[in-house]
Amino acid sequence: xxxxxxxxxxxxxxxxxxxxxxxxxxxxxxxxxxxxxxxxxxxxxxxxxxxxxxxxxxxxxxxxxxxxxxxxxxxxxxxxxxxxxxxxxxxxxxxxxxxxxxxxxxxxxxxxxxxxxxxxxxxxxxxxxxxxxxxxxxxxxxxxxxxxxxxxxxxxxxxxxxxxxxxxxxxxxxxxxxxxxxxxxxxxxxxxx
Length: 193
Fold this sequence. Notes:
By secondary structure, the protein is of the alpha/beta class. It is 47% helix and 13% strand. Strand 6 (126-130), helix 6 (147-163) and strand 7 form a beta-alpha-beta unit.
C-alpha cells in the first residue's frame, strides 16, 4: 500500500481522552455554542452491534470492531471534509489515531492500512486531550473499562498522537465552563464564533 494524496484541514480539531474523562460533556457544550461536532464511531458501532446481535464489540470480536472503527472514522473525515465550508472549526469526538491507540491496547498492533490512514487523513496539529479523572469516572453498558484501563488508554493516546506529530494540549480537570474556555482559547481567533 502506498500513501495516496494527503487530506488535511487546519480547521479539524480532535478532542480525545480515555473513557470517562468528560469528553462528551465538553463536546455537548461546544455543540450548544453552535460549533460543528462529529460524533465518535465507537459508541455508534457498539449500539448498532448490541441492537443487531452482532459480534463487532470490544469484548467479543475486537479485530472486526477495530476495522469498523477505522472505516467509520475515515468515512466521517471524508464526509466532513467534502461538506465543510472551510473556515469554521469542526470538533471530532476522537480521531483516526484513536483507532490505532485501541489496536495497540488490545495487542493487534498498527497495521499498514491503519498507519496509512493516520498519515493520509490529518487534523489540526493541536489535539485536545482530556486526562483521566477518577472523581468523574463511571462505567456503563458501552464503557466497561476499569479505571486502570482508562489510565493506560490515556497514556497510549499521548504516545500515539505524538507518533503522528500532533501537539497534545491537555484540558484541565475543571468545571465545564473552564474547560470550554480553555479549549476555545487555543483556537485561532479567525476560527472562533
